[in-house]
Amino acid sequence: MKRKLGICAAMVFFLAIPFLNAEGSHEVPLEKSAGDREVLRSLLPEDSERPGWRAASRPEFFESRNLWEYINGQAEMYIDYGFRCVVTVEYSSSDGPGSMIIDVFQMQSPIHAFGIYAAERSPDDLFIKMGAQGYLGKNVLNFWKGPYYVKLTASQSSSDTRIALMRLGNAIANKIQGSFSEPALFACFPDKNRVKMSERFIPRNFLGQPFLENGYRVEYTGGGTTYQIFLIQTDSPEKATEAFRKYQDFLRSRDEKISLSKRDDYQLFFTQGEEGKSVFQYGSFVGGILNSRDLSEAERTIEEIVHKLRNRAKGGVLQRSLIIHRV
Fold first, then answer.
1. Among the four residues 26, 128, 229, 322, which has the most C-beta atoms within 10 Å?
2. What is the pLDDT, as a whole number, of residue 223?
3. What is the per-residue pLDDT for 168?
4. What are the DSSP calls for 6-32, one per residue?
């Protein structure tokens, strides 16, 4: 049941600085890569931690330069989410024909690990307490913790298989030090009409725009419609203002009519139509509502978000590092 699905390890435990090759893809220097592989290898279950399962292959490692050999068709997405390295191993059941593949992906940082995990989960999944968060299917178990995204896939589905998935998943999660939770910025999103487990972090080309990076997005449903709310934290108010302007220019290039308005400490604009948008800029933040048909309700929602951002800034709670981490 060997499938191609890999990534390579970065030895830096939290935030690694990316290196770029000639094509602009992120890579890890070879001398660092060797050490990173040992870090990833150390997270795999020991013999005593996987009774009834024996290694059917040696650990394989993939980096950004050859990730396509393992997950062709998904490699570009993983690299966009800050992929560094992956180790993959296949195990065979000692009690039958079953097999299992374990993949441990090391991403650029904990927030990037959350991002790729959230991109592959669904609100309908069965969520479990493993690592920072995980979900269990009939024959799969995926979770994230720290800068790692871990995927376990079995060839068969049964109650015994799910027990084995939980046992091996916990063995890996317990080796990753620290306690983590979802990015703190999601606390600034409204609770009303929020779709549970729809939080997303998208590091590149947010809303399809190359000048928008590190976007946070949540799904909502209410009043017979679905809509999305997003936030982007830039490095400075000047960069937020520039992004705010560029997004207006993009919408105007599509012949969308924009109504610009200002408040005491933030500015916003609205577009109307089948897919109306309400977008604001406050300090170093750009945010808004997509598919906002009720402009008065959209403005109240934006005021609520800005109010939360103000309070968090006053209390010194909102930091540039948006993953809650406790050692």
1. 229
2. 80
3. 96
4. -----S-SS-PPPEE-TTS-EE--HHH
- b or e along 293-307 (b: 16 or more beta carbons within 10 Å of the residue's beta carbon)? beeeebbebbeebbe
Q: Could you tell me which residues come within 8 angstroms of residue 150 by beta carbon, excluding any fewer than 6 positions away? A: 102, 103, 104, 105, 131, 142, 143, 144, 169, 172, 173
Widest pairwise Cα distance in the chain: 69
φ, ψ of residue 18 to 5 degrees: the values are -70, 150
Closest by CA position to 279, among listed 187, 204, 202, 212:
212
Q: Give the pair of three-digit tokens for residue 84.
A: 């560094």
The backbone torsions φ and ψ at residue 33, rounded to the nearest 5 degrees and listed phi first, read: -60, -40
CA angle at 187 for the pair 16 and 133, rounded to the nearest 5°: 60
Domains delineated in the chain = 19-177 (3.40.1000), 183-325 (3.40.1000.20)
Give yes or no for residue 211 having a pLDDT over 90. yes
% of the chain beyond a pLDDT of 70 = 86
